[in-house]
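Quick review question:
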């Protein structure tokens, strides 16, 4: 290999060469040398060193003129900055490339032509550094030139690149950061151009950027050159891959989200200063993902290997060559934001003043929020709701959830602590006051209100924006009680962040949120859109199916990705997934559902739970649920998923459903599959010894068990005074269930509201020796500490201490 004075090819560079070639080039060289043999594809190239920049200015005797241009610059005088920056760029550009430097650059170009062919196009990118701060890369401050062809075009791009050290933004940045203009030099990276203008490109991270969750690779991408994704100028496609199961051989995309990708950046031939432009993305391309699953998995493999090499989470840019179809990594740097976050505090909301009370009901959660009240009378007015407003309604159903997700708080006339609005508010982590009676009349549309759930069991809606504060408590180390403390969770978007709470897994993962939020349509409507009477509804269902082969494929993919995300977040801890438990009126509210559901006078006691699964009226829908769960466990490799049947009324009903599950590849005991049942019907308790022959565990649903023991409709605010999990009859049912589980050597847990809401119920369960409690995320810390105190009094030692 020819020896160069001012050039270093990537194979000669490593991460320690930052002072010589800048952070970008040093990282590319490090990966090219160390990771190419592991299959990570890096485009070859060379760095024009920082010494070349200094030699160029030395030879042209340009330093005095640069000092004249930049000394005493006032960065706040914009006009002066523009004039001086322009002059500095002219000085650097005018210095020209010394003959020996130009000759070396051309020789390097010829070497890349030998490797990639005479028609290879080049990317000319800056890689600035500072003598006194080797880790400064000054990313984004200088110019990049893409799709460069020919010797003269390359030399011209290098001259312009050197001059871009003095762009107005770069000058201002250095002054803000306290860097001396004359101690910063520029290295240039010249590398094979990846023709992503003909394919796609994007950014990926070896962790989740929102939560800091480290067991996932997060890939984003869009059509065309990567600048749009890097700058956030386009809504990209998003993908997640779970690292532990990927390493175990289960190469499957965990979750994906289709971005709008409205524009794409392409090349424009001509003046080097105007080399790209955005053009509209064809409509058909916007409706499909910019890369396929094989590409996502290859990128995930790259990310895992790069992170392993550097030893910390990484932020990487990737590009797909539209000519060769190959994927390349074109930049990698340490991720320094999400990787530093750790949830170490507990929030406590305190209302500092009182005001006129507009409505009073049952408090959900312990938070406070203020916002403009928006009274929504019916579903037709949901599009009028604006993010950050307080949703005030008579009641809510699953088709309201997209709006609820954007609300600051929720207030309803009807409903108890386990109604739809309450359940969703808990999952979203926002305050809700339910069962207010006449809030849609007493709270005026458009007025500012404060919703407080921080004052005990009663929640209040106050007029005006009242002062409140949030106190934080350091969590530190929390011992694990002998009683397992699990979490109730249904929203996949909260899974990664929720996993940081001290926990023993998920005791109740509800399918309903995923179906209503991410699938939106009734499963039978997706399978049989031709049976939907309303033309507009049929069109909406067909639009949801989109490019999928059929509606069943769409349902299975969306449901498996939602449940898979929750299972991955808590891997390898158990995640108990309850199969769908919509009531017929809730199913009817899904898109197209009215054409497939019966009308029932009391859906709470009707066609729900296990009775649906083997019934001809829903058998096809249950088959889709089974296919989705088989995909989660077998294809994704998330065998920590435990399946649970709700509302199993009779023994022969259990047998029929278990047989159907086995028919779809979900056989108890095969591939370590455990199947639980909800214990929420008195018959489950009475016949627990016989039910125990069919299941691996019971999770007591205290909400329905209370309802059916006391004969109280739990959604009726009129008789809410009679609904109490602490009733002696309900407690006796729970005692018999726990003792029955122990007698049969099977798991016993409870996933209702009782231990979250009432400390005395948590004490009762601990004294019974129940194996687990599944709690809402906002009560996990307090209840864990309470359980530890109870167990200490009973002489039960904790298991271990873990960081919260």
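Suggested answer, residue by residue:
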């Amino acid at each position: 290999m020819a020896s160069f004075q001012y050039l270093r090819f990537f194979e000669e560079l490593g991460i320690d060469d930052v002072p010589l070639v800048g952070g970008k080039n040093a990282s590319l060289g490090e990966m090219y040398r160390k990771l190419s043999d592991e299959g990570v594809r890096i485009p070859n190239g060379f760095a024009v060193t920082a010494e070349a920049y200094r030699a160029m200015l030395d030879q042209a005797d340009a330093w005095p003129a640069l000092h004249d241009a930049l000394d005493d610059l006032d960065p706040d005088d914009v006009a002066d900055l523009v004039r001086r920056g322009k002059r500095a760029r002219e000085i650097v550009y005018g210095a020209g490339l010394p003959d020996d430097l130009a000759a070396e650059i051309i020789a390097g170009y010829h070497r890349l032509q030998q490797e990639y062919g005479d028609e290879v196009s080049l990317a000319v990118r800056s890689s600035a550094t500072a003598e006194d701060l080797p880790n400064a890369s000054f990313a984004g401050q200088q110019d990049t030139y893409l799709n460069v062809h020919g010797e003269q075009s390359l030399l011209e791009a290098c001259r312009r690149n050197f001059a871009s050290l003095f762009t107005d933004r770069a000058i201002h940045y250095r002054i803000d950061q306290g860097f001396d203009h004359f101690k910063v030099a520029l290295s240039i990276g010249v590398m094979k151009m990846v023709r992503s203008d003909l394919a796609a490109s994007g950014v990926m991270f070896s962790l989740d950027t929102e939560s800091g969750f480290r067991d996932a690779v997060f890939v984003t991408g869009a059509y065309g050159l990567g600048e749009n994704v890097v700058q956030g100028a386009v809504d990209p496609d998003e993908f997640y891959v779970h690292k532990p199961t990927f390493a175990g051989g289960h190469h499957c995309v965990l979750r994906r989200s289709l971005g709008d990708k409205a524009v794409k950046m392409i090349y424009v031939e001509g003046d080097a200063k105007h080399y790209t432009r955005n053009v509209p993305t064809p409509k058909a391309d916007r409706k499909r993902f910019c890369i396929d699953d094989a590409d996502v998995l290859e990128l995930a493999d790259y990310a895992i290997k790069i992170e392993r090499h550097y030893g910390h989470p990484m932020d990487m840019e990737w590009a797909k060559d539209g000519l060769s179809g190959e994927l390349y990594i074109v930049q990698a740097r340490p991720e320094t934001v999400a990787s530093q976050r750790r949830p170490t505090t507990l929030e406590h909301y305190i209302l500092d003043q009182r005001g006129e009370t507009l409505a009073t009901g049952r408090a959900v959660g312990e938070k406070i929020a203020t916002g403009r009240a928006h009274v929504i009378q019916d579903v037709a007015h949901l599009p009028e709701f604006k993010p950050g407003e307080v949703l005030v309604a008579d009641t809510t159903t699953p088709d309201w959830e997209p709006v609820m997700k954007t609300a600051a708080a929720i207030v309803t006339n009807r409903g108890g602590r386990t109604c739809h609005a309450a359940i969703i508010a808990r999952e979203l982590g926002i305050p809700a006051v339910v069962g207010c009676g006449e809030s849609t009349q007493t709270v005026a549309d458009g007025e500012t209100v404060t919703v407080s759930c921080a004052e005990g069991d009663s929640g209040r809606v106050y007029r005006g924006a009242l002062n409140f504060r949030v106190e934080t408590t350091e969590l530190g180390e929390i011992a694990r009680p002998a009683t397992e403390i699990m979490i109730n969770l249904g929203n996949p978007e909260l899974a990664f962040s929720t996993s940081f709470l001290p926990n023993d897994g998920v005791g109740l993962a509800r399918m309903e949120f995923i179906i209503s939020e991410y699938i939106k349509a009734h499963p039978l409507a997706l399978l049989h859109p031709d049976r939907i009477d309303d033309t507009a509804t049929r069109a909406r269902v067909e639009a949801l199916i989109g490019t999928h082969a059929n509606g069943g494929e769409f349902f299975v993919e969306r449901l498996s990705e939602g449940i898979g995300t929750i299972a991955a977040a808590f891997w390898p801890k158990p995640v108990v997934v309850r199969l769908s438990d919509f009531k017929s009126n809730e199913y009817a509210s899904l898109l197209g559902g009215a054409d497939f559901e019966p009308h029932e006078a009391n859906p709470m006691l009707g066609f729900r739970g296990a009775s649906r699964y083997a019934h001809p009226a829903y058998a096809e829908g249950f088959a889709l649920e089974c296919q989705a769960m088989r995909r989660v466990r077998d294809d994704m490799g998330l065998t920590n998923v435990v399946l649970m049947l709700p509302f199993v009324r009779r023994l022969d009903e259990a047998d029929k459903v278990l047989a159907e599950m086995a028919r779809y590849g979900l056989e108890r005991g095969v591939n370590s599959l455990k199947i639980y049942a909800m214990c929420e019907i008195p018959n489950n308790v009475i016949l627990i010894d016989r039910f125990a022959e069919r299941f691996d565990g019971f999770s007591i649903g205290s909400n329905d068990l209370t309802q059916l023991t006391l004969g109280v409709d739990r959604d009726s605010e009129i008789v809410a005074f009679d609904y109490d999990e602490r009733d002696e009859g309900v407690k006796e049912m729970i005692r018999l269930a726990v003792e029955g589980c122990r007698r049969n050597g099977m798991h016993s847990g409870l996933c209702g509201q009782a231990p979250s809401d009432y400390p005395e119920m948590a004490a009762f369960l601990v004294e019974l020796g129940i194996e687990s409690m599944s709690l809402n995320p906002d009560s996990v810390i307090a209840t864990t500490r309470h359980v530890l105190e109870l167990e200490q009094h009973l002489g039960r030692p904790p298991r271990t201490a873990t960081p919260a």
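Why it works: The chain is about 35% helix and 20% strand. The domain at 197-340 is CATH 3.30.470.20 (D-amino Acid Aminotransferase; Chain A, domain 1).
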